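hey m, so remember when u said the tokens were messed up on ur end? i reran from scratch. heres the input so u can diff it against urs
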Amino acid sequence: MTTQHLLLAAATLAASVTATAATATTQVHYQQLDVQGVTVFYREAGSAQAPTVLLLHGFGASSYMFRDLMPKLAEKYHVIAPDLPGFGQTTVSPAVKFSYNFDNLAAVMDAFTQAKGLQRYALYVFDYGAPVGWRLAVKHPDKITAIVSQNGNAYEEGLSAGWADMRKAWANPTAENREALRKFNTAQMLKWQYTEGVQDQSVIAPETYQLAYAAIERHGVEPQLDLLMDYGSNVKQYSQLHQYFRSKQPPLLAIWGKQDPFFIPAGAQAFRRDNPKAEVQFVNSGHFAIETHGNEIAAAMLEFLGRNLQASAL
């Protein structure tokens, strides 16, 4: 064998070893952790020695929405994506009397991060994941290294007219007004939330909304109605959150599907009012922008986190 052949073989072997190591690092693992009578299902990837990014999903979804994002982030970060109680594969023990409200969802996630030993972490929040993440940030401001909000609302002006039925129920929580919210949990409505505002609906995998509907059927629709009825509590807590933004000025990227029928672009722009350093980007998509513009969102996150997490470590 010639020297050239030996060098080529060595280079090929090195590339193979590097690729194998990269695959091992970015491999997503599926695990469970029991906290407060809740068996939290979560996905985890990346080196535990790297900075941590906690991904919090929203309504009509689960950690499944991060299936493509996680391997990309895991090349540089320790990435964890739990299913919230009432969603995905997370289950609540029948022996536990669990009230489905956002305070309790946040309490479970707080206990989960502590059980995982997460001392500091960046947040990615989406939809329902936002009020959960906001509670974590307000309670533990020094733990939060950066925030990425993908259609995760924090301001009144971000709520569209599509919230009219919910607002009516918050103001007057009658059985009739609660029942009117049941339509948001139908298979047809879930699909609409994925496809509305999307130019090319053929890029939306049907499993996304089908799995979300299957989870509602499995857990029951009542927890979902409880959360819709409680969402008004998040709006009431906005003032505390805005004070956190003003006092701590966390690095923040709001990357928004500008055709979202529920959380409109004004909500993304509003972050700059209390946090002038907030960065705002829009993609031409709807609520579940990660399903149509996942590559752009991943690239924006990697650039943003690369600048800000390195700076925070200095």
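this time it looks ok to me. The chain is about 45% helix and 15% strand. if urs says something different then somethings off w ur setup not the seq
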